[in-house]
Design goal:
homotetramer, 341 residues, 14 helices, Aspartate Aminotransferase, domain 2, globular, 13 strands, 7-stranded mixed sheet, alpha/beta, Aspartate Aminotransferase, domain 1, 2 domains
Chain lengths: 341, 341, 341, 341
């Protein structure tokens, strides 16, 4: 059975596990106060070329989003995002459970546009009843988006400028950041991401780690007593090393970027192949998630041999489907898929 | 200065204050365990003709909505409503602050239609990722709606049936219930409301009381230890009598309905008058809130002598405005307004 | 039936109701933005002799405590108090429901001593694991306390100094402030209270109002967007006038203090009477709550004609009981009680 | 540098890592819906001899406690525990952050006694104001306790019976369960634990895993939609396999118990050694945490070569210290420590 169901269906990239194994018996203090965690932070800071970044290692995307958002907002504030945003749709209400409204705005190709945000803010501020409404307190975007698309540097700069104009911290969910930045379509690197956002996370779970995300505060803006914040939300690992050592490996010798490049190359082969077979694109993604339009009949036939997700029903006969590549995808798998199409 | 700004701009209907005064020096136990509170409940039960109703007196609409919703839902559930719903827009995120998502669906004339709800539920249940989404746990509607409109009995029956089919309790926000049920356009009475909903509240604040709403559970479904629930949310008055005595007065000799009828009559005069003067309707409301389209120039001119709300900007030149009548509106005020138009 | 059960068993002081009546038909904007609310604030500011005080009117004590505490604390902070404190015992977990721990320390006569607080803070700060513990974020006291006792000016000054040394805002629950400050045992006035605390509330519900408390911020420290905070907790009255007009009356011609003096005089008569009858004091209270030790037999006998609270069981035969006076207590009631003893 | 600081200072037991490595490249669905997670549950069920157990894998102790407690309680309920309990002291207020009070009662050797619980419940139920107090909703104990002590079967049976009498689910925090059950002082096995509690967790993090705990519901009492509950609290791993595969290894060929036995043997050697050297016991622990009384001078001297925790200051000259063994402790380390004493 072939699987293109997601980028979290295998364990860790072998080099990541290797590093865990190598450091396994070293005695280290707990709760992120260990030298290995410091080493991992140092590698990320070096990669971005800034030693002022504040970094925290967490175990998963929803956890990271929940903590980032709830620790940045006051009780009466909400987080603005595209209505396709992960926090708006697929986190079982984690943001609301933390007490905050998700203010979902119309997206364009999965992206929140600067103009959409500005119009929303202007309307909010002009509303005489605005004290009775949820105050927009920060902005959430994902990059790549849930549709695999990427902000251009111009788009992200415009959004970042708009955020600053309205006093809104900009938070970027980089669950698949490695895949995004290694796309040929990307005109940004991780330094741009750090420069244009107030906080963002570097996704590990979907990019070669067993588990783990690195949350980065870029303006000295990590809330005070952040350790207590993550502890009380149940997110502080006694052995934080488990996550930080994996990030050490991912940011050694460019492994994180190698993983990204590999998955993108496989994704581009896959895309080409589907187009050649006459499948229409549902979204034009330059990253490791690919979306196609398929007839129900073809979907049913293909499911016998391949795992993949149905993204959305389009009409009685057709649906949008998603195929995802990762560090673990092989040329052989793409070849095998080709034969099945 | 004339005011049609809202239905909460005066104190209480004189008969309500009179009753407070009459009972003022009677010694009563606190926290709603007093005979006056029992008497008020008995009057409401008699009005509805059912002695199985569980009733609780609270001080305001947002408080009542917050408590009703958060006490009925499990942590992972959200409340479905029209996107014009008060809980979705004008409660400073009270529902989200209590941990729950507001699942806002497209409205029609401020109403949530049974078909809209059914389509939403079907899509939710068919979604393979539904465990990662907020589970719809109840339905909120307002009657009259925020646009002054009314559900017909057929519409409410269809919605109620749909709710039951999907296992969703139906909650009706009756902040202006008295005005709604006394509209000539209404084909329901309060017995229908109790029969077709699982819980609802009878609005006092906007219908003649100083403050207060009566939350009614219609299926023996008041959550256990409800006194502790309202206490911990800061909503339990030591002197619950303050609210219950007002409801006693409102439900004595049909005062609540007299108030409703009076305001509706004034509203209909007002509506006719505006139409005669060539103002277009923004929404066709049969209740005490009336919405018109006006030019900015006319709005500015009128504001010098009359208080009213700008509801929404329509374009560069025009806006929707709201005029509200209440138990306190007089024929003289309507006459005076006519002269100003 | 005589009642000394509590100070909230009647409605409002007649002058308070009279003022409500007088202002009843005046048209005013909602949500505390009305001139009557401004007038009430002005009277309180004048009483305290400071025009920089920020004031907010709420409906009850638990609501006020919940909002004061939760709006001043960060998520990982708790509120320190005596273990007899109302927030620790009798609010159905309202503080915890808002997300914060109540850090209860041993009391002395219902009071939190400066030395107890200092020792607790020193131990906390010296603890190597303090990041894993709840951070003390503010201090709560009640004055009079739950046992009717009073802080001396020296004691409150010491506590206030200790709070400042550790960076802890000091919050005073003045549910019965009028009774406390009019006790002959009090060496403070309301100006001292404002000077020595960071925030406090002036109790209305138990001191002559139908309902309502005035929360006062003394250092320009009202959290921003406080209206949204109280709205989202369900505590914003559309007709805030209902509470503020009552405070206007209470702070006109010294009514609030007259009420206090009257109740204290009756309480002292009652205390003397009980002592003369050989009842031991359970707590030596100089305010309107009086605590005695009684045999169960006597309690049972008395209950036939008098309402009062059993405070605590002491042993198989005896219990502590509480008798409370208020603005509504009359000489005749005390006389009648005397005959029953 | 020797370390007896805690049982979480190394990575994973080699056999655990080995199993992760072996299963690393197997393609599996996410979110705990994979066969490897099923396999781990099956092994735990087999170990306990009951196929009706509901099991969920989480990443850490505080997370597990927070989720177990908040998912079992209604909003107005609190969790009862010994005042030494981890949830009461060392979780940065995670329980309160989830909305619930921790009702801490006096402990005996770190244990909550059945008689203490019964007396507390009787007093609560007899209190006329109990609706204004936090309702006890469940009981939390740790086994071994924070002081390394163990409940006897008779004690746990009494506590369990008391819980049932009052309708309180009993929850056991087994962060160090493997060490506890392998102590010669234990007269219970894991089947007894399952029989006498309503839910408990089997600790992985401190007993050989990189991270992870197995939460077990013993009465078919897992709250519905538990996946959504853990997702919204940020605790659902995309790759749940990371934890479940580790538990598979721990419950293969008795590894979990071997780890326990080994650490206990080393702890007993260590205890004997300290006693021989004249150190008094601070607590008489039969498990892998050992507590001694030491002079400050000796502590300071020892700290140059050994990592260990100061547990509590006793007086000016002496403190209680904690030494912890684990699966990773070697005979050589104990020998080396002996030389330093």
């Amino acid at each position: 059975m072939l699987s293109f169901a997601s980028d979290y269906t295998e364990g860790a990239h072998p080099k990541v596990l290797e590093h865990l194994l190598k450091r396994n018996l070293v005695t280290l203090p707990g709760y992120g106060l260990d030298p290995d965690t410091e080493a991992a932070k140092a590698k990320i800071r070096a990669e971005i070329g800034r030693d002022d970044l504040q970094i925290c290692f967490l175990t998963g995307g929803t956890q990271t989003n929940r903590i980032a958002v709830s620790s940045m907002l006051r009780s009466y504030e909400g987080v603005v995002c595209a209505d396709t945003g992960h926090v708006a749709v697929h986190e079982s209400g984690a943001i609301e459970h933390s007490g905050h409204k998700v203010l979902a705005l119309p997206h364009r190709d999965g992206k929140l546009e600067a103009a959409t945000l500005a119009a929303f803010m202007d309307a909010y501020l002009a509303d005489a009843t605005c004290e009775h409404m949820v105050r927009p307190g920060m902005v959430y975007i994902s990059h790549p988006t849930e549709l695999g698309t990427l902000y251009t540097k111009a788009e992200l700069t415009a959004l970042s400028d708009t955020c600053r104009r309205y006093g809104l911290p900009l938070y970027l969910d980089g669950a698949r950041l490695g895949y995004g930045l290694m796309s040929p379509a990307s005109d940004m690197d991780i330094r741009d991401i750090a420069a244009l956002t107030d906080l963002f996370y570097i996704g590990g779970t979907k990019v070669g780690a067993l588990c783990g995300e690195a949350l980065v505060f870029t303006r000295g803006n990590m809330p005070p007593h952040f350790m207590a914040i993550i502890k009380q939300q149940g997110a502080l690992l006694a052995k934080t090393r488990v996550v930080s050592q994996q990030f050490d490996a991912l940011f050694t010798d460019g492994l994180y970027w190698d993983i990204g490049r590999h998955a993108i190359r496989e994704a581009m082969r896959l895309k080409e192949m589907f187009l050649k077979k006459g499948c229409a694109l549902y979204a034009d993604s330059p990253t490791n998630q690919q979306f196609f339009v398929m007839t129900n009949a073809r979907i049913e036939r293909l499911r016998k041999d391949v795992a993949f997700e149905t993204w959305a029903r389009l009409d009685e006969d057709r649906a949008a489907v998603r195929f995802v590549t990762s560090w673990a995808t092989t040329d052989e798998q793409i070849d095998a898929l080709e034969k099945l199409l």
